[in-house]
Description:
Oligomer: heterodimer
CATH architecture of the largest domain in chain B: Up-down Bundle
Helix content of chain B: over 70%
Largest sheet of chain A: none
Order of helices and strands of chain A: HHH
Number of domains of chain B: 2
Structural class of chain B: mainly alpha
Distance between the termini of chain A: 55 Å
CATH superfamily of the largest domain in chain B: NADH-ubiquinone/plastoquinone oxidoreductase chain 6, subunit NuoJ
CATH topology of the largest domain in chain B: Four Helix Bundle (Hemerythrin (Met), subunit A)
Number of helices of chain B: 6
Largest sheet of chain B: none
CATH class of chain A: Mainly Alpha
Strand content of chain A: under 5%
Mean pLDDT of chain B: 83
Structural class of chain A: mainly alpha
Amino acid sequence: MSEIVTIQQLLGLSIILFTIGLVGVVTRRNLILVLLSLELMLSAANLAFVSFAYIQGDLAGQIMVFFVMIVAAAEVTVGLAIALLLSRKTGKINADEVRALKW
Amino acid sequence: MDPLFFYTVAGIAVFGALGVLLARHPVYAILSLVVTLFALSALFVALNAYFVAVIQILVYAGAVLILFLFVVMLLDITPETLLRSRKPALLIGAALFGLFFISQAGRVINTFQSEKLSDIQTGVTGTTRAVGEQLFTIYALPFEVASILLLVGVIGAIVLAKKKL
């Protein structure tokens, strides 16, 4: 364990969280949990943005995080509504069981 | 930033993320993500991003994840229907893919200058005032576009989820 914290360590944490989210998106079947893993990926990207804002001395990175959160909120609202509709119409919530384009 | 603080918070964040990946029941996965978001919020405070840290807890942990919880309760998912693992081969493949991704991305971040965070004279302090001033001057147009996006999201969710309009 080193005595100092460098930018690499912050970005490394960001990469680890992003990869866990990515593996979650690939392996999870439940539509809700896929969306949840997507949220984790977005949060990991937010950490990278804030780290870069800190070392550059520029607020632009933090403002980008603000916009990322807005997009995430909109995406989750519509995504969960689709999941709700899917489960109501077909009774299925697993992504790979939904094959028909028209339900 | 104190190294002990960083490693503690990073450990909590990774622990919560693994909970999201491995939890059987969706409610546990959602609560694990809350743990991760709180840890990230602590890191944001240490990086002088105060406004973003508060918004993270209020919007993400407070609103978005509560929405997830509501939907899980509305759908009445039982853990038996979850079947989180498809095939062992797929899980091994996903793990190998993750390790490959981490190693490649690690090579990218090793090209950055290795500066101690304590040595950086940062001029940035993300207070509400500083962020708000930039948001309403330089980023005024993206801000308005974001509000339209939220409006469209709300209308779309109502149209999709309402049984009869």
